[in-house]
Amino acid sequence: MATQNNQSSGSYSRRKKTPVNSEEIGRLQPQAPELEEAVLGALMLEKDAYSVVSEILRPESFYNKTHELIFSAIQDLAIQQKPIDMLTVVEQLRKKGDLDIVGGPFYIAQLSQKVVSTAHLDYHARIIAQKYLARELISFSSQIASKAFDETNDVDDLMQDAEGQLFEISQRNVKKDVTQINPVIREAIDLMQIAAQRTDGLSGVQTGFKLLDKITSGWQNSDLIIIAARPAMGKTAFVLSMAKNMAVSFNIPVAIFSLEMSNVQLVNRLIVNVTQIPAEKIKNGRLEKYEWEQLDYKLKELFDAPVFVDDTPSLSVFELRTKARRLVKEHKIKCLIIDYLQLMNASGMNFGSREQEVSIISRSLKGLAKELNIPIIALSQLNRGVESRVGNEGKRPQLSDLRESGAIEQDADMVCFIHRPEYYKIYTDEKGNDLTGKAEIIVAKHRNGATGDVLLSFKKEFARFQNLDDDMLVEEYQSRLNSQADVIPASLPNRNFSIEQSSETPF
What we know:
Number of strands: 9
Largest sheet: 9 strands, mixed
Structural class: alpha/beta
Shape: elongated
Strand content: 5-15%
Number of helices: 20
């Protein structure tokens, strides 16, 4: 019988052969064949035994190919909600054509006789799972080592491929035990007490947009927030205005991953936002006398602000995970912004379509938000469906307008749209209110709260969003500067700003 099993095991193989490192020659793969026999025997003797191991083991967890086939038959019976015992397992193996391969009914009967007790079934199953994970890591490291010796492989591509494969292994094997409710209740009460002590009445990261914060109570930790809009609506301007509010007004550390713009382009837009000097003048440096003074004065707000920027193009979710962990650990980042989701990739993994890849990306971002316990804000494109509709109501974005919307809408805790009626030459709403220079922030999905609309002021020339009641203050400040234009001394190009910049970079 042993001869038959060995022959069958050699003929049955659904896995690729693992490359063997010279250092591994003569070393056995991690395995526990006796425990595999004991677990399979217990599954056929104990009525509810499968429910104990169903989340721990899979067919491929078994080192012995014969045991893999037997467990697969047991799994099939469980899925069909049929009894699991020696007779039903034999019959299921016969149906699949695998009975002779595993050694016939005699071998199945032998497994049942090797069980002394099912008391330690969970413990034994976890040892088998650990051995399987060790084998996967050995196979993974051998493949990477083999590719690294091949000089035709690009090292950067190899690193991304390695990170993707390792991520896949970890995702397949991560299990989290259930938690009794009492400690969770205590944690919830603690968070309520912390929120009650805040004078702003918020429980999350505040944006500086008062009405938006009122609806959301601030961006909540572990939430994935999608900010979506058609081109030219001001997605980047919105998150830059928000990041400036967080970092400058509230000293909240924030990280921005810009996949579309370089660091300098992004910071230039931030300078325009803060100083309220037109972008064209910032680019060519042709500022009036008072504007140099304005630049000097307002830039002091940005120096030493806890804003960290990264402009890695075509960023992968695996690179993001590594960098985000460092940012949270080293710089205590409280919010992470991605501009924008559709420019990311999940390299190192194979997909049948771009929609599947976006699904993995959005699910990974949600998982990262939970892991780091911070809000992650990802900008997203909308499809062209908006353009074909008429009227102000027709132009307002809907959840179905999200590009690759199924996965993004499902994974997001909150979806917000930016809508500027003025862009579509709509200057008044149905009540006759003026919409010039106004932008609607539409909270279309809010998993843990209310939805609604917020009206903000949008200063296109400054790429700046602000509260409506800030308009009067800004106009007063601008008027005061203009009145002083003739008395402020000219500032020379190549100015030396008095605030020193830190040479340290986060990445």
